[in-house]
Amino acid sequence: MTTAKKAMEVVKNLDLERYMGRWYEIASFPSIFQPKNGVDTRATYTLNPDGTVHVLNETWNGGKRAFIQGSAYKTDPKSDEAKFKVKFYVPPFLPIIPVTGDYWVLYIDPEYQHAVIGQPSRSSLWILSRTAHLEEETYKQLLEKAVEEGYDVSKLHKTPQSDTPPESNAAPDDTKGVWWFKSMFGK
C-alpha cells in the first residue's frame, strides 16, 4: 500500500507538554540503530527548561535492556509545524559520534494517545501509542494516515510488546553495546 509522493503534511501547533511522557513503539521500519529482535521498545520524552527535549529510547533484547539517550529540538523554532531534529551520540557505550535525524509528527489524535512519526525521506516510520497495545481498528487507521503521506507500510515491522511492560531497572543493561554492533550487521 503506497501512494504517489506528495508534500508531506506535518502536525501544526503540537502541544509539546502534552506530547511528553512515555510512548510505546507499536510498529516501525527496521533500522540499523535498533536491535533486530528488540521487544518492549519505547521512548520517553522529557521537556528540558531550555525548550529542548530529553529522549530516552529503550528496548529489551536477550533479557537485557538496551538504551540510548539523546535530545530533540525544533527544526525551526518560529514554525508552527511539528518538525524536530533528534541527536544521539553513538556508539551508546562510548558516545563520541553525533548522529542527527529528522523526527516529524505526521499525525496525533486529539487525546494525544496515538502518533505517526516520519521523516521527509520516508525512510523511517514509527507508529506510537501511550499504551503497549493498540486495537486493530486504530492500528489500521494509523496505517492509513501513513499511506496518505506516501509511505509503503508493507515495510513496517510490528514490535512485540509485553502485557506488562518491564521497568527500566528490571533487567541488566547491555553496557557493552553488543546490541549496537549486532544491529549494524542486521542481527
What do you see in this structure?
With 187 residues, the chain is mainly beta. Helix content is 13%, strand content 37%. It has 3 helices and 9 strands. The protein has helices at 16-19, 136-148, 178-184; strands at 21-28, 39-47, 53-61, 64-74, 83-90, 97-108, 114-118, 125-129, 157-158. The chain has an 8-stranded antiparallel beta barrel with strand order 1-2-3-4-5-6-7-8. Residues 181-185 have low confidence and may be disordered.
List keywords for this structure.
mainly beta; 9 strands; single chain
Q: Determine the strand fraction and express it as a percent band.
A: 35-45%
Mean pLDDT: 88
Order of helices and strands: HEEEEEEEEHEH
Gyration radius over CA = 16 Å
In terms of structural class, how would the helical and strand content be classed?
A: mainly beta
Largest sheet, spatial ordering of strands: 1-2-3-4-5-6-7-8
What is the rounded distance between the termini?
Answer: 27 Å
The amount of helix comes to: 10-25%
Q: Can you summarize the main beta sheet? A: 8 strands, antiparallel, barrel
Number of helices: 3
Query: Spans with pLDDT under 50 lasting ≥5 residues?
Result: 181-185
Number of DSSP strand runs? 9
What shape does the CA trace take? globular
